[in-house]
Amino acid sequence: MANTEINFYKQINDQVTEEAGIKYELPSFSFVSEDGELVEMLDTDETGNNIVVQDASWTPQENNLIYEQRFHIEHPSELFGRDKVTDSANKLGIAVHVYSRSSFFQETIACDGDIYDTDEEITVSFKHEFPKASLRGKIALEFFFYLKDFQKRNPLQASFVGTNLSQSHIYRVVLHVDGDAPLFPITQRDVPGGPLWTVKKLWTDPSVEMFDLSTVQIELNSAHPLIEQVDAGKTRLAVETLSNIIIESMGMIIAQTLADMKEQELSFDDECAEGSIASVVEQWITLHDVDTTNIMTIMSSLKNSDLKDYVATAGDEEDGD
């Protein structure tokens, strides 16, 4: 994602990267086989900042995916001091923004390890497991430095824990995965005189029926006068309109699924099929910290989440094509 903000605090630019000896190892991939063995994936294909994840014995529907990577800071002291990125009393960390329009999720994950003022090399490790049946299409990972612990501030230095201190990504990669994780089911149809969008519930049992176009649809009306506001790319109005549609649709789907599960005496503790409507709704609830007390709390939780930011950046993983 392009960083268009004007920052009034010191950041880690190319010169600082070179002075501090900031380097990274290429990521490695593995998965757990049906026999419970950890299998290293050796057939991945890397081109630029794109990696095709593949292995003869791995499928994203049946296996998890374990991503591992290490970052080295050869001269950490170059980052610390009154005239440097942050004071010597503070600590930095590395985090990664992981997001995918295809799999419809985003999250920011902190890597293991602190970066502090020392003359010795520091290695920061990242390891993350993507569950089976959770990936499809393209998944972008963007690594950056952030202020992890704050004790003292000097002029032109960031003072808020969590502040992104990278002028550009430490490392950015787009994973290409050929999987069957559920796409957000948006379709279009001409309905003259109809509303801009509708949600269609086509499922009966959310615990076993798959989350796809055959069970649920968010249908946009291509004959509606305001459809151009949705199709106008990444303009502010288009993003706002589409994010409102997605948030309200998700709220309705969550509420209806919970109602169906209550009527059928089902719960998320029961065995729900991978990729089912119930499993997807459970993921939404967990990921966006949704209060499911009633429809109003559901909508409020979604509107106060980072979903709007996600819609604004969701297409950016394609920049690495």
From TrEMBL:
It comes from the Bacteria. This is Uncharacterized protein. It comes from Lactobacillus delbrueckii subsp. lactis.
